[in-house]
Design goal:
The protein is α/β, with parallel strands linked by helices. It contains eleven helices and 15 strands. Strand 1 (50-53) and strand 2 (59-63) form a beta hairpin. Bound molecules: zinc ion.
Amino acid sequence: MSLPRLKDRLLALARFGALPGGGVTRMCWSPPYEQARAWLLGEAKTAGLATWVDPAGNVFGGLGADRVSPDAPVVLTGSHIDTVPEGGILDGALGVMAGLECLHTIREAAIRPARPLAVAAWSDEEGRYGSLFGSRAFCGRLDPAAIPSMAAVDGDRLVEAMGRAGFDAHRAPEAAAPPGGVAAYVELHIEQGARLEEAGIPIGVVETIVGARRARVVFHGQADHAGTTPMERRRDAFLGAADYALKARELVISRGGARAVTNFGVVHVHPGASNIVPGRAELVHEIRDPDAAVLERLARDCEALAREVAAARGLTVELRPISATTPAPCAPRVQETIEAACAALGLASRRLYSAAGHDAQNLAGVTDAGMIFIPSRGGRSHRVDEMSDWDAIERGANVLLHTLLRLAA
Ligand SMILES: [Zn+2]
């Protein structure tokens, strides 16, 4: 494994969609993303890999494989090269670039594992148009009927975004891998939290990946003149949304246990003028928990809370589910293999759950899947200063290499 080559590739990828003050905005199907995809295909060819792109836009580089087939089940690694707006240079990119480096190293060393290997860059992991889109399609979990209505928060439709990039969104479900085509999946990723750094442990072995529920919560009131309408006559939709946001936070903290989290990351007020009482307020509400039963209960309780808040304020409320993922356990076989690789390399490891969603949770539905985490500086992620130490990156890539070799042996 060559750290200089891995570092060069990570920094080269970071130039696509680079922001002036550091960090990157590279949302799936956008021009910088499509340039990065073309660059990645070139790098995989340079590394001596067979390359292919599936109908969901997932990019693959194969060693001993030029497609996914049950005739020769592939050991798969990968992650994603899309980012959140104003994101960092490692989220996703690390897993793809390290996977590429591992396969490059194996090919150069003329090692011939029993099973073929491949690295994947999954489309739209960050879910601009639909959460974990590419891996969902690959794992046969993409509902064709949902495709026409999949859209970004700004209204841009998936069908058009993929069309601009030269893909037919309606064909994305054809990316589904044939049953038995994947022997195992392992993904290297930054932790995006502070647990490993605070414990001084270099490697995390993921046991479970959290599930997340996202719903649009729309409060309807009455738009009125903000000067002439007496306060007691107002049916202010924004105040309903604000009241709900504060109470939902309390509910998730008090009834969810230590691992539940919730967020309101999108807020729109209509018509959105300083002299009009808001007639409609829309929130995107997200809840996450590693326990499926807890997540289900919190989602139900929050729905009841939204109706209660609306009724108390003379408003109505609509709840429209956006996405729901269930918590995914990682395969014991893959966890044990990662731990054996750590032991062989003399690295301490700790089992933990992933507080973020990942493509591995879809792969866990079709094969034995697992994840390797490395510490994130200050636990920072989904922001421009997201970083990990280069020696932590090197350790993670080495653990990935040894894990892949063991899984493919
Ligand atoms: Zn990621």
